[in-house]
Amino acid sequence: MDRSKHLLRLCDWSGNRIIDTIRIAIRLKSEIREGKPSCRFAGKTIGMFFEKPSLRTITTFQVGMHQLGGMPVLLDPKSIGINQRESVKDIARCLSRWIDGLVVRCFEQSLVEQLAEYGSIPVINALSDEYHPCQALAFGQTMVEQFGEDLRGKTVVFIGDGNNVANSLMALSAKLGMNFTLACPKGYEQKKEEIELCLPDFKKSGGEYRVFNDPKEAVAGADILYSDVWISMGQEGQKNEKQSHFVPFQINDELLKLAPSHCKVTHCLPANRGEEITDSVMDNLQINLCYEEAENRLHAQKAVLWQLLH
Ligand code: CP
Ligand code: NVA
C-alpha cells in the first residue's frame, strides 16, 4: 500500500508535505473569511464512518466538504455492521465504487489500515486509539499562525496520557524540528515502538524527545502546554484508577507560574473542566489557543482533502 495516498498516521507524511498542508489550510481559512471559497470538490463525495462520539471532527469534515463544493455522506456503523453483517474487505471495495474518500474514527488502528488496504480511495484517520493526525495538523497550523513557519526549537509539553493525541503531536514535532516533552504518571508513557517510529525524524530535524513523571519539571522551557482528557473514549471502565494517578497532572494557574511567561496553552477538546485543566486556564483567552485550534480543524482537514482527493 502507498501510505502517502492516505492519512493513516502523521509519521507517514514528510515534513515538507505537512508544511504544504498547513499553507493550504491557512489559504483556505482566509478564502472563507473573504467569502470566496474554492469549489474544488464539485460532484465529489466523502463517506464518514464514526465508531466513537464526536463534535469537532464530525462537524468540521461535513462543513469543510460542503465549503469546497462537495458532499459528505454519514455512514452508520450500527447499520453497516462491520465484520458482523459484512467483511471489511467487501465494505471497502463497495465504498470505493461510490465515494471519493473515506473518513474513519475507530478504536483499533488496524481498521483504518485495512480499509485503506482493501479499498482504492484515500482513507483519513479521524482518530483511532493510537493516533489523531487531523488534530496534530490543526495544532501545527495554530503554531504556524502564532510563531511563523519555522517552528524548529519550539517546545511542546503534552501533559496527559501517552496515547493518540500525544502520539500524533510527537510525530508533528519530529517532522518539524520541535521539541516534544511528555509529562505523565509512571506507566502512562507512549509505547516504545511509537517513540522509535519518530526518533529518526527527531534526529533529522533537530527536535528533542523527553519524558517526565513530574509536571512541574516538565513545564520549564515550554512554549506551549497541551492538554487532553485523562480518560479517552473507550476507557470509561478505567476511570477511577486512572483519575487517581492523573490528579497531579492538572494544568492550573500554579503550574503555569512555573512555565515561561510567554507560554501558551491548548487542548484538543472536549475538556473536562476541573480535571485535566481548570476553568481559570480554559477561560483565559490571552493564553488558551484551544478555540483557534478547534477553528483550524475545519481548514486543516480541508487541506488534507485537498492533498488526497483528486
Ligand atoms: N478533538 C476532537 O477530535 O474533538 P471531537 O472528539 O469532538 O471530534
Ligand atoms: N485522547 C482523547 C482525544 C479526544 C479528541 C480520546 O481518545 O478520547
Describe the structure.
The protein has 310 residues and is of the alpha/beta class. It has helices spanning 15-33, 56-67, 77-80, 88-98, 109-118, 133-147, 164-176, 192-205, 215-218, 239-246, 253-257, 279-282, 290-308; strands at residues 45-50, 71-75, 101-105, 123-125, 155-159, 179-183, 209-212, 224-227, 264-267. The strands form two sheets. A five-stranded parallel β-sheet has the order 7-6-5-8-9. The protein has a four-stranded parallel β-sheet with strand order 2-1-3-4, sandwiched between helices. Helix 6 (133-147) packs across helix 7 (164-176) and helix 6 packs across helix 13. The structure holds phosphoric acid mono(formamide)ester and norvaline (NVA). The site of phosphoric acid mono(formamide)ester (CP) has 9 residues, from helix 2. Phosphoric acid mono(formamide)ester binds next to helix 2.
Which SSEs are present, and which pair or pack?
Layout: H1 15-33, E1 45-50, H2 56-67, E2 71-75, H3 77-80, H4 88-98, E3 101-105, H5 109-118, E4 123-125, H6 133-147, E5 155-159, H7 164-176, E6 179-183, H8 192-205, E7 209-212, H9 215-218, E8 224-227, H10 239-246, H11 253-257, E9 264-267, H12 279-282, H13 290-308
Parallel strand pairs: 1-2, 1-3, 3-4, 5-6, 5-8, 6-7, 8-9
The structure holds phosphoric acid mono(formamide)ester and norvaline.
The site of phosphoric acid mono(formamide)ester has 9 residues, from α2.
